[in-house]
Amino acid sequence: MGIGLLTRYELVGLPDRTQITDAVTVFWLFALGWAAARAGTVPRRLLVTVAALAAVPGFFPGEPRHELFVMAGFVLLVWFPTLPSGPRLNRVAGLLAGSSLAIHLTHWQIYPVFDGFSKHLAFLVSLVFGIAYAWAVTRLTRRLRRTRPFLRRERPRGPGPAVTPATRCPPAP
Fold first, then answer.
1. Cα 78 from Cα 42, distance rounded (Å)
2. DSSP per-residue codes, 36-76
3. CB-based contacts of 58, cutoff 8 Å, min separation 6
4. Is 47 exposed, middle or buried (0-12, 13-18, 19+ CB in 10 A)?
């Protein structure tokens, strides 16, 4: 987490980062999330919570609501890692979680196109496009694995023979 926070406060000699569209700029968020996932005791959760509440303010200049939303969401994730929910909500959450990388990778291109009409519409279209993109990529990779044997991942089928120095290389003729 500490190393991640070095990128938050630009303490490692990186160029000025006014855009948050690259991995180096947001690395501290991933590090903080990892620390939250590993924080299994109350003192560790407190430490991660304090780090988040100290680091988020100022990261989204001029957007205090955005910062409050991120901080509230982070605190909820740290202190309530599981929440009771129904099957429908679980399906929606699973769909969004499974598509989150695709949503993140594509929303930079989709959101600005619809932002002039409505921020809510831009948000919704970004989600739908990201989910559709994830679905299409999944289908394509499955099809390629079926039709292109060299793309298949070989999975071990149970315990294999023990590899020892004597069995590693065949004997010389």
1. 10
2. HHH--SHHHHHHHHHHHHHHSTTSSTT-HHHHHHHHHHHHH
3. 67
4. middle
CB 64 within 8 A of CB 56: no
Sign of CA dihedral 76, 83, 106, 23: positive
pTM as predicted: 0.57
**Structure token pair of residue 114:** 């619809």
- d(CA 29, CA 87) in angstroms, rounded, equals 29
143-160 residue pLDDT tens: 888 887 766 666 656 565
Buried-state track 111-150, b at ≥16 Cβ within 10 A, e below 16: beebeeeeeeebeebbbebbbebbeeeeeeeeeeeeeeee
What is the chain's length? 173
Q: DSSP label at 152? A: S
